[in-house]
């Protein structure tokens, strides 16, 4: 039973990650950052997901360091950008990320997109950072099954997590099944489909039953499916709404109805398109 925003999932190296985190994609302005991140802390979020590409690591680090929340209560994820991939580039960029985030250790470091050119070099750099305890856990983002199989052929450490686009129109069930078999956690970015699902009539009927918004129903669906989920918003009322999903439970048949909405519809890039370019 999922009880609260404090619930965690244990990764394959024993590190615990909150199942429900807060994404900071597109939050760059200082006032917006303070308003949204402090609101997220106020309503209970302790896991924050950023990336070098987002250009807000320094802002997030400043706000969290000033928040009064103990470092041990926070879980910080960042990602190596495409333009920083490669062995040396990864090591240099993560050194800068640590400074910008005001951290001695990053909780979770991901490769943002698979790169054919730098495929093993970047992962080897993550393994070094893990061995040196500069990061607590390492994983990937936007990897398909064949990328993960390729990675396993020449890696010493298995990824703890794969963060991919997932929402009710892109449920990613074959990938989820593979990750489960490999003991790799599944994390959903764009869990609300960048707004594409927020007018869905099927979900709206379920939302009306529980007196919840469509967004709340979908976040609850993710949680009950076992997905780690990182909704983002810069609107304080929506940040609070997205956290308020622990006072109801979707029935099994309702989860199946939502599952059936899958269209394999991406709103972001296809991983293989990026893989061949970087």
Query: CATH H-level name... which superfamily?
Result: NADP-dependent oxidoreductase domain
Derived structural class: alpha/beta
Reported for the largest beta sheet, the result is: 8 strands, parallel
CATH level-1 class = Alpha Beta
- Contiguous low-pLDDT stretches (5 residues minimum) are none
Write the CATH fold name.
TIM Barrel
Helix count from the secondary structure assignment: 11
Mean pLDDT: 97
Task: Note the run of SSEs as H and E.
Answer: EEEHEHEHEHEHEHEHHEHHH
Number of domains: 1
Assembly classification: single chain
Work out the radius of gyration: 18 Å
Family: Belongs to the aldo/keto reductase family.
InterPro entries: AKR, Aldo/ket_reductase_CS, NAD(P)_OxRdtase_dom_sf, NADP_OxRdtase_dom
Pfam families: Aldo_ket_red
Site (Lowers pKa of active site Tyr): 79
SSE layout and pairings?
Blueprint: E1 8-10, E2 16-18, E3 22-23, H1 30-42, E4 47-49, H2 57-66, E5 75-80, H3 87-101, E6 108-111, H4 119-131, E7 138-141, H5 145-152, E8 161-165, H6 173-181, E9 185-189, H7 201-210, H8 214-224, E10 228-229, H9 236-243, H10 252-259, H11 271-275
Domain NADP-dependent oxidoreductase: 29-262
Organism: Clostridium chromiireducens
InterPro entries: AKR (IPR020471), Aldo/ket_reductase_CS (IPR018170), NAD(P)_OxRdtase_dom_sf (IPR036812), NADP_OxRdtase_dom (IPR023210)
Description of the molecule:
It is built from 11 helices and 10 strands. It has helices at residues 30-42, 57-66, 87-101, 119-131, 145-152, 173-181, 201-210, 214-224, 236-243, 252-259, 271-275, and strands at 8-10, 16-18, 22-23, 47-49, 75-80, 108-111, 138-141, 161-165, 185-189, 228-229. With 278 residues, the chain is α/β, with parallel strands linked by helices. Helix 1 (30-42) runs parallel beside helix 9. The active site is at 54 (proton donor). This is Aldo/keto reductase. The record marks 79 as: Lowers pKa of active site Tyr.
């Amino acid at each position: 039973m999922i009880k609260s925003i404090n619930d965690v999932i244990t990764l394959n190296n024993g590190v615990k990650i909150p199942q429900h985190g807060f994404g900071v994609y597109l939050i760059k302005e200082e006032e917006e950052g303070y308003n949204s991140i402090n609101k997220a802390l106020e309503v209970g979020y302790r896991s924050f997901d950023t990336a070098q590409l987002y250009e807000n690591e320094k802002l997030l680090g400043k706000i969290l360091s000033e928040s009064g929340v103990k470092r041990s209560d926070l879980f910080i994820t960042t990602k190596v950008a495409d333009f920083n991939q490669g062995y040396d580039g990864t090591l240099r960029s993560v050194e800068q990320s640590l400074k910008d985030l005001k951290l001695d250790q990053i909780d979770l470091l991901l490769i943002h997109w698979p790169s054919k050119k730098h495929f093993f070099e970047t992962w080897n750099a993550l393994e070094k950072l893990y061995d040196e305890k500069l990061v607590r856990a390492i994983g990937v983002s936007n990897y398909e099954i064949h990328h993960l199989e390729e990675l396993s052929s020449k890696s010493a450490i298995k990824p703890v997590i794969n963060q991919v686009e997932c929402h009710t129109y892109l449920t990613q069930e074959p990938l989820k099944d593979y990750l489960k078999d490999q003991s790799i956690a599944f994390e959903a970015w764009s869990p609300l489909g960048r707004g594409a699902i927020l007018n869905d009539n099927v979900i709206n009927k379920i939302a009306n039953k529980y007196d919840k918004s469509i967004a709340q129903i979908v976040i609850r669906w993710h949680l009950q499916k076992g997905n780690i989920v990182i909704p983002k918003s810069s609107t304080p009322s929506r940040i609070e709404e997205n956290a308020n999903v622990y006072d109801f439970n979707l029935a099994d048949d309702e989860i199946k109805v939502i599952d059936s909405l899958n269209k394999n519809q991406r709103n972001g890039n296809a991983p293989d398109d990026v893989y061949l370019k970087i």
